[in-house]
Amino acid sequence: LHGHCLQRLQSPRMDLCHVPATREKGWYLALMAPNVKGSNYAWLDPSRLYCHPQGLQDCVADLLQPFQGDAIDMVAGIDAMGFILGAAAAATLQKGFLAIRKAGHLCVQTVAQPYTDYSGREKVMEVRTDAISPGLRILLVDQWVETGGTMRAAIELVERLGGVVAALLCVPTGVAAICMENSEGGKWIRERYKCSHCVPPRLQPHFDQH
């Protein structure tokens, strides 16, 4: 990261008032807090970004900008941190929000999909069967796409129910996350779906090599 961004990442103080004079795409990434608890945790915590009013607004605006004018019927967020950005995006678009849950939390009929998350743990994701009708155009939102396993499982769930997380040459809805790393799984998603993220090109290598 460039010097200013690195300095802000290392700062323990949460400044909810400061807004830079020039708000270029991704300025709010410096609000994220670094991991201080070891390898079992994600390397950055975006929840400090969500506490900043302007930072959250600009993050959601940047995520949605590539989809301006696109036909989106519903926003779906992935358990759990994807609920924050997904719900904010749905409110901005004035669309409904669908929660894609980790298995065992829904008391209604569901369809399930096993997957391996970024830490290598085997998990199962599920979604209620009555929320997605054939042809429904879905914008899938999560906090982060690292290995791509979680997002790919969510895509499979939506498509199994007949929803459209559109391929690049099809209906233009797709996938949004603060960061999409250039991992094998991340590249698989980028090659097939319209994608949006918040990391400027000059910072992408740092996020890929953490």
Strand-and-helix sequence, N→C? HEEHHEHEEEEHEHEH
The low-confidence runs, each spanning 5 or more residues with pLDDT under 50, are none
Structural class by secondary-structure content: alpha/beta
Q: What's the level 1 CATH class?
A: Alpha Beta
From the 3D coordinates, which CATH architecture would you assign?
3-Layer(aba) Sandwich
Overall 3D shape: globular
- Strand fraction equals 15-25%
Record the SSE blueprint:
Blueprint: H1 3-10, E1 33-34, E2 44-45, H2 47-51, H3 53-64, E3 74-78, H4 82-93, E4 96-102, E5 110-116, E6 122-128, E7 138-145, H5 149-160, E8 174-180, H6 184-192, E9 194-196, H7 204-208
Parallel strand pairs: 3-4, 3-7, 7-8, 8-9
Antiparallel strand pairs: 1-2, 4-6, 5-6
Helix pairs in contact: 3-4
Notes on the protein architecture:
Belongs to the purine/pyrimidine phosphoribosyltransferase family. It is an enzyme of class 2 (transferase). Residues 69-164 form the Phosphoribosyltransferase domain. The mean pLDDT is 90. It contains seven helices and nine strands. The longest helix has 12 residues, at 53-64. By secondary structure, the protein is α/β, with parallel strands linked by helices. Helix 3 crosses helix 4 (82-93). The strands form two sheets. A seven-stranded mixed sheet has the order 5-6-4-3-7-8-9, sandwiched between helices. It has helices spanning 3-10, 47-51, 53-64, 82-93, 149-160, 184-192, 204-208, and strands spanning 33-34, 44-45, 74-78, 96-102, 110-116, 122-128, 138-145, 174-180, 194-196. The chain has a single domain (60-208), classed as Rossmann fold (3-Layer(aba) Sandwich), CATH 3.40.50. The radius of gyration is 17 Å and the shape is globular.
